Amino acid sequence: NAPMMKFYNGNEVPSFGLGTWKSKPGEVTQAVKDAIDIGYRHIDCAHVYGNEKEVGAALKAKIDEGVVKRQDLFITNLGLEYLDLYLIHWPMAYKEGGGLFPQNADNTPALSNADYVDTWKAMEALVSKGLAKNIGVSNFNSEQIDRLLKNCTIKPVTNQIECHPYLTQKKLSEFCIQKGILITAYSPLGSPDRPWAKPDDPKLLEDQKLGELAKKYNKTPAQVLIRYQLDRGHVVIPKSVTKSRIAQNSEVFDFKLSPEDIAYIDTFDCNGRICPMLGPGLRPNEPTILEDPKITAM
Ligand code: A2P
């Protein structure tokens, strides 16, 4: 089992969990069951991943089988009696209705003027009701976090952001950690299965310099990428639906990267953002939601 990290409120989070973004409904139930059998106790889910029912089926099966108890699991964003962590998925709000990603007539995202500070107040109420043990945010930049901190009663425990050697997020990580907010790193392996990957996009897992480092540590590139997050004090949630990889990704607690090697990996940064809807992406000149005046004006 992964070592625990502590939120500022004293609650603990397993430093390592299973990501489920891009896991197909038909494969995620088995993947979550395998992960729990292997020892994973932290599962990251989201409504927009379109597979929560299937994740829930795996949790129920493993709890019913007696393999784990609910209190030993740490679940982000899923309809259970309570959540260990509930996140605002991103700072912008979509218009209600019209599916998960409603669009305007010109195919741009159909956003509403809902303010994440108001959403946060509703999240705080969930904590008072016992429905969420911890609340946090995702895909927030430092300005948005700053504004939230000025307007909240309960501070977010984490900011879950895209983070990997091609987008090291040094400034945002330092900012959040200094405010007592843990970073949770998503896409730590560079999400090679992102639906919009182009053949000539750089492939992090195949990076030659990373490969050389992995050889030096006698580990796989994926394991070095996961360790890179842990050694920076980040919680990390690599996604896999392959049992051998789910196991491999958890075998990262018997080594550490040297500070020199972490600094070396930091130099791989190339602003290589994978989730372009949330900021400048791999593809230049692409309009992004965060450049939408409605968002930046907040
Ligand atoms: P799969 O799910 O088919 O096993 P990220 O966590 O950055 O989003 O990356 C997830 C992607 O990385 C998936 O395509 C997943 O494949 C793949 N992956 C997960 N673990 C490993 C690993 N240990 N080695 C190579 N690829 C991996």
Average pLDDT? 89
- The helicity comes to 25-40%
User: CA-to-CA gap between the ends?
Assistant: 41 Å
Q: Low-confidence runs (pLDDT<50, min 5 residues)?
A: 279-298
| Ligands present | adenosine-2'-5'-diphosphate
Instruction: Report strand order across the widest sheet.
Output: 6-9-10-11-12
Strand proportion, as a percent range, falls in: 5-15%
H/E element sequence: EEEHEHEEEEHEHEHEHHEHHH
Give the second-level CATH assignment, the architecture.
Alpha-Beta Barrel
Rounded to an integer, what's the Rg over CA atoms? 19 Å
Structural class: alpha/beta
By DSSP, the count of extended strands is 12
CATH topological fold name: TIM Barrel
| Total count of helical runs of at least 4 residues | 10
- How does the overall form come out from the CA principal axes? globular
Q: Look at the structure and name the CATH superfamily.
A: NADP-dependent oxidoreductase domain
Describe the biggest sheet? 5 strands, parallel
Quaternary arrangement of the chains shown?
single chain
CATH class: Alpha Beta
Features:
12 strands, TIM Barrel, five-stranded parallel beta sheet, alpha/beta, 12% strand, binds adenosine-2'-5'-diphosphate, 298 residues, disordered C terminus, 33% helix, single chain, three-stranded parallel beta sheet, 10 helices, globular
